[in-house]
Amino acid sequence: MTKLRLSSSILFLLILLAPCFAFANTAPDTSKIMSKAAKLQIPFIENQGQIQDKSVKFYANTFAGNVYVTDKGEIVYGLSNKEDSTSLRETLIGSAPSAIKGESKSVTNVNYFVGNKDNWKSNISTFESVSLGEVYEGVELKLKAYGKNVEKLFYVNECGDVEDIKLKVEGAEDISVNKDGELEIETELGTIKFTKPFAYQEIDGKKIEVKCDFVIDFSSYSFRVASYDKNYPLVIDPLIASTYIWEVGEDYSYDIALDSTGNVFITGHTVGNFPTTAGAYSPTRIDIHNAFVSKLDNTLSTLLASTYLGGSISETAYSIAIDPSGNVYVAGTTGSSNFPITAGAYDSLMNSSDVFISKFNNNLSSLLASTFLGGSTYEGAYDLELDPTGNIYVTGYTNSSDFPTTTGAYDISHNGGYDVFISKLNSTLSTLMGSTFLGGVNSDYVKKMALDSSGNVFVTGYTRSSDFSITTDAYDTSYNGGEDVFISKLDNTLTSLLASTFIGGTYNDYGRAIAIDSSDNVFVTGEPSTGFPTIAGSYDTSPNGGYDVFVIKMNNQLNTLVASTFIGGNNNDYGYGIAVDSWGSVYVTGETSSSIYPVGSAIPFPTTEGAFDTSHNLQRDVFVSKLDNMLTSLNASTFLGGEHSEYGRAIVLDSSGNVYVTGETDSNGSSGSHVFPTTEGAYNTTPEYYVTFFIFISKLDHYLTAGKGIPTAITLSSFTADLKNKKVLLTWQTATEIDNLGFNVLRSESESGPYTKINKKLIKSKGSSTKGASYKLKDKNIEAGKTYWYKLEDIDSNTGPAQHDAVKVEVTAKKVKAKK
């Protein structure tokens, strides 16, 4: 029997940049690694109930995403990028496959120990291919999965007809064939490609090519082949493209938090073998796409704890917070019905794609509470905050009209498209205390949340809804067009919209992050469009080209724009994270492509003298910038990056004013150029060459110098500590003082910190003096047998606090001179 063989494969166009470089003389050949990964055959796993969707018969977890085969013969591709997920579904038109089975049983069996013990599965069979049987008269279809694609093999025998084969694609915004003959499918995440079919016959030991093309009919496609010798089989095989959404490994860090002892926690999404620790809640990867939570010490030298979090489909954690007891909360989005949920949780039933909120103990060994939150379609959680009483606020967006709301909430009706939701749960995640929609007829997207000192809830994001909920006395009550930034304030019961405003230019403006200072002023960062409002006297009131970063300051009632500035250069700059220190200084992080090129016409992203890195490192760099509270001065600004691309996602400050930034980078130095900067003794200073994006965590001093030399308002002659009558007497002498507002004395039981202030009020200084002065302070709150470290901090009226070298005192029965 002569058979005609047709095959096509789905490939994923590059959405995230992939590195293509190696360390000179030492790095492995990255292209060979990627090539081997692309050709690696991935087995199909039989669904024996580990996936609760009973329509799924087989599935495979490839590096390019998940593929599912349903009992109706549908082929479903699960796609995701850094921020979102979607799916494509292929259906054979006019076919009803009924003989779906695995073929060529693999030697590998898999176990699923996820969720409740009653749902555990062991020794599940896997197969090298899946046969859908005869899908049309004389036409059989088989599937094979590889590292980076899924191959469809059509076998057309002498009684079959190629023209019968027709597939409908659902989940696509558009389908077309490009100039290279590739099938391009537009999705909400970007463009996906099916490679051009390559047809050939083997005749007398030679390959004879036969022309083959895709044929498009609205949302479906078929194959057209040229004439060929019917006495020989015809093979149609894909040409493998070179770029994909997922490489061998990708890790993304979206948020960062500190506990009361200064330990650093991050959370995000991983595709690969992420480092975990013994004793962690889930040290073994459950699926190729899982969330993670990791804990490091404040010197970033030790991975103290690290765990996966997820089920058998896909999870991303976007936010993390720590309560006063050290418990760790994370929130994000999951597509896994077997995501771990605890007894007594508010919602234990998963819908299409739900929010998850999970609570761990401080060492990440126990899942203390975990719940779903959602309606019947899609929702994603993008931020969470904790109030002083331990209640949890979570925000995100949803297109579920039945998303849970509470009686008396501000808005209990879905408004259209994607709406913002804001929900409040108790600390055990067992009770929904409040929940409301916020939005208009078009789609509204929230990015971040903050609480003021009264517990009011502020959210920011962007909207296309001209009827978005705005209060009458707001700063801007008129929709400006395109995407407008919104800033909204609700009471802590989520029953009243206290204030809400638009802010924007004539096109697309994006609100990305929000912070509140000690006076309850509101700061927001993001990207503006032409006509975005600025305030005279602000640092930069003129657009620089491309997207700039904006930073604005508003009063608590959102009816006054107090200050507004741009930060940027002539290319695109994006603001993703913002924080305010105890002195009111404003820190912003994000990414910038603005360098010194092209020479002569470039406007580089601004940096400051003495900063850690004042030279742009090509492609995209992280930036970290510090402004004064009125946004009139750029007090410090630095790049942070390597040869390729970096993204600064989140920023947090410790009690000593140190700055922590996290995100991801693909600058591993494998081209022979400089890697992303790490420090001696850090947990991991060696990049992985086969990882597309890997996470970074960086710690800088508040001058953003990373120890390159800290300017100071004073010249310090001496700083000593002596034990006297069960007290430590601290004395210091200045030689000169310039614009010095005063002093704090900080104490720690470890030289590396964290340090906390021991004086109740700022210690008054001479201000400006060429003669200097003497000062002293007694520390009465000490314990015998302990060792203490003290730091002196002076407050410069122009640039804020600066810390000096620590001194050490051992509390014994005799007087001990401090040691440097």
What does this structure look like?
The chain is mainly β. Among the domains are: 3-238, no CATH class; 248-438, no CATH class; 714-810, Immunoglobulins (Immunoglobulin-like), CATH 2.60.40. Helices cover 1% and strands 48% of the residues. It has a 20-stranded mixed beta sheet that branches. Strand 45 and strand 46 form a beta hairpin.
Could you give a short account of the major beta sheet?
20 strands, mixed
Arithmetic mean of pLDDT:
83
Instruction: Label the overall shape.
Output: elongated
Strand content: over 45%
Which regions are unreliable across 5 or more consecutive residues at pLDDT < 50?
A: 1-38, 238-248, 814-820
**Helix/strand structural class:** mainly beta
* Beta-strand segment tally: 56
What Rg do the Cα atoms give? 29 Å
Topology:
Blueprint: E1 3-12, H1 30-39, E2 41-42, E3 44-46, E4 56-62, E5 65-70, E6 75-80, E7 85-92, E8 101-112, E9 121-136, E10 139-146, E11 150-157, E12 166-170, E13 174-177, E14 183-187, E15 190-194, E16 197-203, E17 206-210, E18 212-217, E19 220-225, E20 234-238, E21 249-258, E22 264-271, E23 290-296, E24 303-309, E25 315-322, E26 328-334, E27 354-360, E28 367-373, E29 379-386, E30 392-398, E31 419-425, E32 432-438, E33 444-451, E34 457-463, E35 484-490, E36 497-503, E37 510-516, E38 522-527, E39 549-554, E40 561-567, E41 573-580, E42 586-592, E43 621-627, E44 634-640, E45 646-653, E46 659-665, E47 691-700, E48 714-724, E49 727-737, E50 740-748, E51 756-757, E52 763-764, E53 774-779, E54 787-796, E55 800-803, E56 807-810
Parallel strand pairs: 1-20, 21-47
Antiparallel strand pairs: 1-11, 1-15, 2-10, 3-4, 3-9, 4-5, 5-6, 6-7, 7-12, 8-9, 9-10, 10-11, 12-19, 13-14, 14-15, 16-17, 16-20, 18-19, 21-22, 22-23, 23-24, 25-26, 26-27, 27-28, 29-30, 30-31, 31-32, 33-34, 34-35, 35-36, 37-38, 38-39, 39-40, 41-42, 42-43, 43-44, 45-46, 46-47, 48-49, 49-53, ...
